[in-house]
Amino acid sequence: MRKKIIVKAPALSASGYGEHARFVLRALKPHEDKYDIYLHNLAWGQTSWLFEDDPERRWIDSLISKTSHYLEANKGTAEFDLSLQVTIPNEFEKIAKINIGVTAGIETNKVAPVWLQKTNEMDKIIVVSNHAKYGFENTKYPLVNDKQEHVADLTCDVPISVVGYPVRTFEPADVDLHFETDFNFLAVALWGQRKNIERTVFNFLEEFKDEEVGLVLKTSIKGGCTYDRLQTENLIKGITAHFPDKKCKIYLLHGRMTDKEMTSLYRHPKIKCMVSLAHGEGFGLPLFEAAHNGLPIVATDWSGQLDFLYAPQKDKKGKIKQKGLFGKVSYDLNQVQKESVWEGVITPDSMWAFPKDNSAKEKMRSVYKDYQLAANKAKKLQKHVLEEFNSDKMHQKILDSLEPNEEQKNWEAELGGLSEV
User: Fold this and answer.
1) What is the C-alpha separation between 305 and 280, in angstroms, rounded?
2) Which of 10, 288, 350, 359 has the lowest tally of Cβ within 10 angstroms?
3) Is the pLDDT reported for residue 309 higher than 90?
4) How do 331-335 and 141-144 pair as beta strands?
5) Among candidates 65, 86, 88, 84, which has minimal Cα distance to 21?
6) Would you tell me the crossing angle of helices 197-208 and 357-369 to the nearest 10 degrees?
7) 368-380: buried (b, 16+ CB within 10 Å) or exposed (e) per residue?
8) Could you tell me which residues come within 8 angstroms of residue 237 by beta carbon, excluding any fewer than 6 positions away?
9) Rounded distance, CA 341 to CA 418, Å?
10) Cβ-contact 28, 402 below 8 angstroms
C-alpha cells in the first residue's frame, strides 16, 4: 500500500525555497508507485509565482487540486503517513504520523529559540548545508524555573541530515545581452543588507574606477515591476554619484529570468567572474549555479557555499586535502546589524561574516590580472560539483532521509515499515 505523503512548501514560488520545494517533489515523482503525493502550496512573501506552462507545472497544479479534493472529501478525517515541510522552522507543525522539516536553515551562526522549539516537534529535519546544521547543533538557550534557577538547556533534539541542491543543467537561451566592456564581474542577489550588494558595488568602483571593466548586477529590491526597477536604479545612481569620472561600467539586469536565460548569463563570453560578498548564505544557489557552469568565483570564505566551493585536491606531497577553488575573501565575524534583526528568525546576539573590503578588492583584482589561473580553478570546481551534486545522488539523499535510522526505530512501528522506499 502506498504511503500518503504531504509536501507543505512554496512549490510555485520563484524563490530559493521554491526551488528547494521543487527539488523535493522531483525526488519523489519517480516513486509515485510507492508514495501517494499531496501538496499544500504556500505563498512566499512577496515573491512572484512561476509563469511557465510545462509538464512540471501541470503536475504540481494537479497535486494541489488533488489535495484540495482529498481534504474536502475527508473533512476532519484526512490523514497522512508522512509530511515533508519545506519552509522556515517557525511554520513547522504536526500534520502527519511522521513529520520531517526541510529548511535552508539560517545564514548566521545560531538559530532563534522558536526554531529549536518548532524543530523539536518534528521527527527529524533536513538542512541544505553543513553551515545550517552547525547552527542547529551548536545553539542552546538556558531554561530557568520560577526562581530563575537554571534547570536545563533548550537544544535541537532531533536528527539532522544534510542534503544540498542538485545540479540542473539547461541549454542556454538566445538572449540579447550586449556589454560595452569585455571583462565583467557578475553579482546575482536581491538588494538587501544580508547580500551586501551596496558594499559590492563600492568595492568594485573603488578598485576599477580608472579601467574599462564592468559589473553586471542581476538584482531587484522585491520584485520585477517597473517601480522596483526605478528604485533599484536610484540606489545604484546614489553610489555611482561618488565616482563622477569613472571609466568602469555598472549594468543592471532587472526582472525574472528563466533558467535557460540565466545559463546564458553565466556562460556569456564577456561575463568572467561571479562575485558575492554576502554576510552569510544557507547554501548560495546563484553561486552554485555559477560553479557548475564553470564561472570563476570570488566569495566570502564563510557559511553555506563552502560545501561546494571546497573540493578534495592533491597537495605538493600528493596528499588529498580540501581546497577552496575560488577567490577566498577574508572576513570578521561580528554581530548582525540592528536592521537585520528579525524577530523569531535572526536574533540580536547572532553573528555573521563581514567581508573585508581590501580582501574583496584584492581577490577581484587577482581574477582580472591572472584570469587563466582563475579559469583553471573554476574548471576543477565545475568537475567536482557536477560529479558530487548530480541530481541522481541528491534525489537519492532525499529518499534516504525518509528511511528510519537508529534514533528513529519507532518509525517502522508507526508506519508499518518504510522498507518500500
Assistant:
1) 9
2) 359
3) yes
4) unpaired
5) 86
6) 60
7) beeeeebeebbee
8) none
9) 41
10) no
- Quick one: pLDDT band at residue 51, thresholds 50, 70, 90? confident
C-alpha cell recorded at residue 258: 528563466
Strands 98-103 and 82-86: parallel
The DSSP string of 193-204 is TTTTHHHHHHHH
**Amino acid code (one letter) for 395:** H
Q: Which residues pair with 334 in a beta bridge?
A: 352
Q: What is the pLDDT of residue 415?
A: 46
Q: How far apart are CA 69 and CA 174, in angstroms?
A: 41
Cα three-residue angle 279-45-390, rounded to 5 degrees: 60
For 13-22, write each residue's pLDDT tens digit: 988 899 999 9
Q: How many CB atoms lie within 10 A of CB 142?
A: 10
Helix (H) or strand (E) segment spanning residue 130 = helix 130-137
Cell of 233: 536604479
Rg (CA), the chain: 23
Q: What three-state secondary structure class fits 280?
A: coil
Separation of alpha carbons 381 and 326, rounded Å: 8
